[in-house]
Design a protein that fits this description.
2 copies of one chain form a homodimer. Chain A is of the alpha/beta class and about 210 residues long. Chain A is built from 8 helices and 9 strands. In chain A, strand 7, helix 7 and strand 8 form a beta-alpha-beta unit.
Chain lengths: ~210, ~210
Amino acid sequence: MPMNTSFKTSLKTIERLCVYRRILRNIETDGIDNIYSHQLAKLAGVSAAQIRRDLMVIGYTGSPIKGYQVSGLLNSISEFLDKPGCQNICIVGVGNLGRAILAYIPGRYTHLHIVAGFDVDEHKINRVIVGCRCYHINKLSEIVKEKNITVAIIATPAENAQAVVDKLIASGVKSILNFAPVTLKVPEDVFVEYMDISVALEKTAYFAKCRRE
Amino acid sequence: MPMNTSFKTSLKTIERLCVYRRILRNIETDGIDNIYSHQLAKLAGVSAAQIRRDLMVIGYTGSPIKGYQVSGLLNSISEFLDKPGCQNICIVGVGNLGRAILAYIPGRYTHLHIVAGFDVDEHKINRVIVGCRCYHINKLSEIVKEKNITVAIIATPAENAQAVVDKLIASGVKSILNFAPVTLKVPEDVFVEYMDISVALEKTAYFAKCRRE
């Protein structure tokens, strides 16, 4: 997927730290207190050396005897990824996909709050949909500024995505998670993460075909 | 994200070819017949040299004067990605996310058919949901073999994903698009593409935070 080159160095590290955190939260729930780098490596599908390199970035070191302390490592990763505090998020497009994303997210993130949804459908305006207050797209600039929203999720049709993104950026959004099947034009200092379901499915199907041949 | 190393060489090329196809379909709909590599590069967010290298893989060359012929290039990419023919796909988990995926996909792919959905919810069994016949998860092995399904989409809760994937692989599935927030253990010859919404959102939020600081 296209991505802004200025972020390339740490992009993969950040992604892996998010994966480690997801795994650590699960094993903490299971009552496990310590984990060795090779065990975490296996769960994350990477090498133990990779784990150690990534945790060096956040300044966390384990003990050769007990490995990593799960709660301590979780705190260190969260400190690194989440501080200095909460971030407000909006979602644009509250159709099938937007609703699925909203249903998927609440409760998982203490530092990420989806504080507004935007849509053009009059039936959705001023309603709370899957826990999220929905506004008319005309209010986008106003609400984004008022609520200090810095992250946006795009779940609009492809043809509307660029216009929406231009407005979001003009209103202060710095980072975008894009589900619309379209490459966005953004300034150098804005980050875009692409989640293109159609491209992912085509790629997956291609490899099934190769395996069958 | 973790990925099977044996596919690494061509993974990015395949992904980019899927993106080029998406773009070419759009511009063909807009009535554009020819496109230069630098124009396609701009729309895809990659370099023109990258485009030329990728198209060399599929054996397509443009004209220095007219650039690439859109319909010819589309055919070449599709020939490369889709042949020798149709592939049958199933989706496991027909909840919010599963339904959103189903709503997103029909009509876009002539060579990819979602022929079965699986769920544990009795209310969904034997119903057609967003165009897809839904079966009980107990029927998974039987239906996957009967319909020659080689690609599966996982939209189950995290805790059910691995058991489902084990069954799918035992029944002949070779390639998996995984939306469940969990790293899957699969044999070397099975491909997994991860679409982890929570990791994507955390990563996006991290970069917004960096831009704000």
